From TrEMBL:
It comes from Ramlibacter aurantiacus. Coiled coil: none annotated. Residues 24-142 form the GspL cytoplasmic actin-ATPase-like domain. One of its GO terms (biological process) is protein secretion by the type II secretion system. InterPro entries: ATPase_NBD, GspL_cyto_dom, T2SS_protein-GspL. GO terms for cellular component: Gram-negative-bacterium-type cell wall; type II protein secretion system complex. NCBIfam families: typeII_sec_gspL. It comes from the Bacteria. This is General secretion pathway protein GspL. Gene3D superfamilies: 3.30.420.380.
Amino acid sequence: MSSLYVLLPLEPASAHSEFAYVLSPDGRSVAAQATTTAALLPAPSGAGAEVVAIAPAHALSWHRADLPRGVQPASARLRSVLEGLLEDQLLDDVDQVHFAVQPDARAGAPVWVAVCQRTWLRNALQALESAGRPANRVVPEVAPETPGGLHLIGEPEQAQLIAHGPEGVLMLPLSPGATSLLPALPEDAPCFAEPALAAQAEQLLQRPVVLQSAPQRWLQAAQSRWDLAQFELASSGRTRAMKKVSSLLGEVLRARQWRPARWGAALLVLANLVGVNAWAWRERALLQAKQDEVRATLTRTFPQVRVVVDAPVQMERELASLRQATGASSDRDLETLLTVLAGLSGERTASSIDYTGTELRVAGLGLTEAQVRDAQPALRSQGLVAQLNGDVLVIAPEARP
């Protein structure tokens, strides 16, 4: 299995735009990385594989808003409420921006809202969809989540320092004066730096940094529960539900904490397969033993039969030949059927009798359904069955399985 993680370009997307991407088998390690057009992006493969679009940190702004009571995250009024709450904080017209609220947002409580250019995000997602790589989720490259931390990204000449945590996201140019503007972070807050910025970062921050390449940062961002595809970018509630199911399935298939459950499920499936095959083998062996017994009975009773093709049919044929040779009657003979008819009809007189070679048809007896039904047990003891077709009584050998 391999999932595809795609960084959306900052410029408006088109057929010629290039997307940086990462292929990962488990959502944590990098299997391949490159930059190419949407049409040439590799396809994810395997159960639980997904396409995750990553919105660059530079493309997003973050705003705090208090949702009024009675406005739920799934409410149709949520966007208009957000427009009213954030209109004074936005540089662009509210009709030109896209909103996305944090996971597990609750009415009557403050929530984080991600804001970006609506046309930019729609065009980028449409470019992926047109290339056959529709995004299952859209996650921010950096989000105001707990625990917080620092990220140093970019080229040495234009490096950026990103601080994020429960209090928001702050982007600053990497310079000596930037450190004084950083929010208070815990002493153990991680500090990640791209390899080219490691020495510069340690010198300015006076603390050790953890090397993290851009692809590794994108994989870390994909672990977030954020999904920016909301409102008009989420086509339906069912689409959102399918995205959540796909995301959960991907987490179950890749996350380290689910490894014991995956092993347990695999062992359970393997045990069931072994059990089913063992049971099937036993049933085949019993069936074969019964078939061998039937063949042996045929060859013992009729030694002249050398080749057994269909034992029941061949035994019926040999019995018929034996009865014919000895003059014995069978349940199909006219004499047998007439004897049964005499016991069933009593003193009634039939208007017509027709014998077809296997069954007897008698008309005019005037028997009722109840009389025929009461006679069935005695008839079955002789291997026969009777039924009424209108005024015609039909007596025939009982069908054998």
